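Pasting as-is:
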Amino acid sequence: MPEQILVVDDDEEIRASLRRGLALEGYVVMLAADGEEALRIVREHSPDLVVLDIVLPGLDGLEVCRRLRATDEALPVIMLTARDAVPERVDGLEAGADDYLVKPFAFEELLARVRVCLRRKRTGHRELRYADLRLDTATREVWRGGRSIALTTTEYELLKLFLEHPRQVLTRDLIYQHVWGYDFAGESKVIEVYVRYLREKLEAAAEERLIHTIRGAGYVLKQEA
């Protein structure tokens, strides 16, 4: 069954262009021109991925993303922004976006990121464990001890990478390659944001820290000696 993508942008030409391009790649494409319409389509049709512009009439893309995250942590969201400043891009990630693209962008770049996000949902069943952490790749459920933890798609992929390589220092370049699937060099703020998200969720009940920063090297999943 073809995967469904919702494109949310108030620019009619962009919507039409992305619909043509994504449809040619075999996706079923739905369109929305504003935030309220986008939320309605998500409720009624449950798309597999959302491409979401930040600047929208009424509800902006950041608020739409926050509302989507409040009801579905696993729905992949790629944010589109005309602003190239790092704080603006971090705002999108803070709102719960899995990825972002700065306008203008090449369609091939968007397509690559769409494929990465959708590929994350097609994993076989495994249960990964370390200390009191458990992750089920079939159900995408995560537990710390007996506590269930809800993660966004990118948080889940980052934690899975750590659980696949416990006690190994993972460089930022390696994390970018495995979690985002393309060269994201120079955007260290992105990893810092997501590591902070994971720590907050994994330590919400005052548990010991498991994800540690290795200055000048990267990050490691380990228990303190």
